[in-house]
Amino acid sequence: MLRNPSKRIGYRSCIILMRSYVYWVSFFFVSSFAILAESPKPNILFFMADDMGIGDTSAYLGFSLLKNAAPISKTLKTPNIEKFSKRGMIFTDAHAPASMCSSTRYSLLTGRLAHRSYLKKQGWLPHGPNRPMIHKSLITLPEMLQRNGYYTGAVGKYHVGMDFDDGHGKPADEFDYKDVDFTRPILDGPTHHGFMEFFGVPGNTEDSLDTEPRIFIRDDKWTFADRSKMQWGGIIHREGQVLYGPDWNLSEIGPEFLKNGLQFIRKAAAKKSPFFLYYVPAANHYQRNVDGDYAVPQTIDDKSVKGESRFTDGAGGGERGDMILENDIAFGALLRILQETDDPRNPGHPLIDNTLIIFTSDNGPNVGDNSGTNEESGGLRGKKAKIWEGGHRVPFILSWKNRFDQGLTNRNLFSLTDLFATLAEIIGDDLGPSEALDSLQSFTYWVDPKLEDPRPRYFFCHLGPPYENDAIAIRQKSKKVIVQGGLAQAWTPKGTQGTATSVACYDLNQDPYENADFSKIDDETQRMVTKLIKIHNQGYSRDLNDSQSKNLIVDDGWHNLRNDVTGLIGFQFKLNIDQIVSHLGMWDDHDRELPVRDARGLPTELISDQPSRTGARPRSLENDHEITLWKINHSLTEELSSVVLTPEKPGLLDHEFRYFELKKPVQLFNNHLYMLTMTTCTDDGDHFHDDVAFDGLSPLVNPLVTIVRSVLIKKDNPSQIFPIPSFADLHPDYTLHRLPVGPTLRFQ
To answer: For residue 501, which of 476, 528, 535, 479 has the smallest C-alpha distance?
Structure first.
């Protein structure tokens, strides 16, 4: 049953809350939710084109994307998408989470910000073998849907990294994949992350760049395994380095995707359960090959493609336009089968009557002026791989009969990251506090587009001048701020070393093309930047489900382990309401847990953060540790209580934490500044979690507590605070809102 979504909006002003309440009691709003509550869970068809801009579809012809932007006057003709938009809801301010493909896909599938994966230098996986971006311990969107009874499938380009077997049960790692054993199942791919079926390719298929084998994968197996019949090919930089199956035809991958997408819908419909189809074709990404930049099929769905695309002014669309036409025809074919197939859950009605259908793109267009405005971007500045609006503002159109089928326009800010929480809301799933941590439930703003969503969104990646690769854009209403590189990747050359510094600020209503003088940084800009630092450092954006736990640290997360510091490590914190502390304690590592990388070295994709071990072997302390609770009053630090945990008296073990009951409970007060520390010694045998994540989940903290910063104290002088050592001396903001998982406490 659908819950009241207004309860899940954490950043709304009082005025908007009042408006939402008034609208809630209106007849239309009550009727809409009553219909949803009584209906079976919808099927979901999600179609994400590759490198398609807003100006690439006639669905947006005549639209002004921003208040003072000129209407879009010319696009490619996409009759199926255009017809679909007229019976659905079309969004003018929807965004890919990143300006490049892999980071967008990661963010959409995990509900995390695009820069939280190991891919921090740029937004796409580099050419050659790439480890999976999604850790198996992360709950994905299809996994969430699957636990709610959905049959899940993916067709097309996966592109968030796979592990292929080298014949010895280990990931193949040779650049040209000479070490892949094609007879063995994939070690890590789509079926390990919630998709019950998969047909497609690992990533891009440019013969001049990408070396992934040109062989389709079905579920977790290669569709062709006889290496003796494979051939070596590739062009220019990759000549002789790309392995092809004997039947590989680059121009036919789109038709193959469509055939398998149609088969999935037929099969899924017969199961009498809701289904989710994640359809992500390779078109219209570059497919450079011996014949040109694109490999256009002659036909798809028995309709001519090659040479058939047209702009709305009648001019030919060229090969790129043909690839967009290919997607349009494929989308139309998927809609047709939904219309023609009877719904076994609702006999006498077609599947389309209860299918939520979404069409979008993974980033902006792959052609155009890098720094100027572009027709393909809907007249906006920039293109793919740029942080300007044209790089990540994308077409987004949805339809669901009797809910969103009136040809409405939605001008609210929306990110594909938000799809995870929004779909969870629609099907009635209570997300766990470690799931979809940056996904903002947006169904409220779908139901009533007149409501204004005030919450900020964050977009990643800019290749080339004038910003560093890991630059991040903040959007909140019409305000846009671009922050210099060095926050997502603190080791970025010429970056900000772990803080966020504004380098550009626009009001898009006044300056839709991002050209105005942005030298003036006002208070609103600074608030947006400060919020980004908090969101980035604490590891989540959305309001997490309230915990009933009395523990300060509810879950330890999975930052890297370390045991390389001598002194007192801990954190400063404040309380939102008065509390009484009954226990002090510490995290205790599993006997077999070890760091995955050097504590003061730079992380890489090969040494991602790992979850804590579980198992029958006991946790045990190797040395004594004193846990101390302090009160900070200006420059004075007062000890409130302390306990010593020893191997002989280790306290009570509760999951991964040990607690020692205080002889006299300690009263703490709202908004006072406190500090909790733990003694540690280099190589004492007892690890703690680093205070900084690379790509792992951050610890979950009791919502009654606000973490101020992580700290290190040397020589028993609690008034002299240092940052916990990292790979370099970084900006003080690097420690804000972070804590090492070592000392903890429990409330009464």
So the answer is: 528
